[in-house]
Write a structure and sequence with these properties.
Length: about 190
């Protein structure tokens, strides 16, 4: 397993190979549909957007959080959200914020992959059904924005410690495990006919 340390730089991202298993230590933010929508609207309106999005490792996740007696926050569960939900928003989001890594499940569209190639971004597949395990990797909450969106939709900021395992499922050259599987299925179906 390869240990990655965020913030990730473009050279490191472009060196990652399809199928590599990695984990991440360092800053990671969570954001789903509503974070994408608000951040892009704020840009269009000339409003300030939280700087934590710049060159971020972005986890498509709606974490379940608990506020502690001292006012701090702890994560209870943090499973990946199906990334395709963000397909319409993600190409511009990647380009505007120079996103370096997306963590999620299920892959993303060809338009997103093109933006990833352009900017230097990878897609790291997280396994569904292990939300508590991934919560352990989100070691400490360092902040949150846009709480009015609701707990799972807010922009949460974490200091991670060995968040993973994650698989490089789409690399910064546009190679995709998802496309490879689709191609193999099509080949196998063609042989059966």
């Amino acid at each position: 397993m390869k240990n990655l340390y965020s913030p990730l730089d473009e050279k490191t991202v472009r060196s990652l190979k399809l199928g590599e298993i990695v984990n991440i230590t360092g800053p990671v933010v969570t954001g789903r549909d509503e974070v994408h929508i608000r951040a892009l609207e704020y840009l269009d309106e000339g409003k300030d957007v939280p700087v934590c999005l710049n060159e971020a490792a972005l986890y498509h996740c709606g974490p379940i959080m608990k506020q502690n007696q001292d006012g701090s926050w702890s994560v209870v569960a943090a499973g990946p959200t199906t990334s395709a939900r963000m397909n319409a928003l993600e190409p511009r989001f990647i380009r505007e914020f120079r996103i370096r890594a997306i963590i999620g499940k299920g892959g993303m569209s060809k338009e997103v992959v093109e933006a990833m190639k352009e900017v230097g971004c990878v897609y790291l597949a997280a396994t569904g059904g292990v939300a508590v395990t991934y919560a352990e990797g989100l070691a400490r909450v360092t902040g949150h924005d846009w709480a009015d969106l609701g707990m799972p939709e807010a922009l949460w900021q974490f200091q991670t410690k060995s968040l993973g395992p994650l698989i490089v499922a789409i690399d910064a050259n546009g190679n995709s495990l998802y496309e490879n599987v689709k191609q193999k299925v099509a080949e196998n179906l063609a042989k059966m006919q």
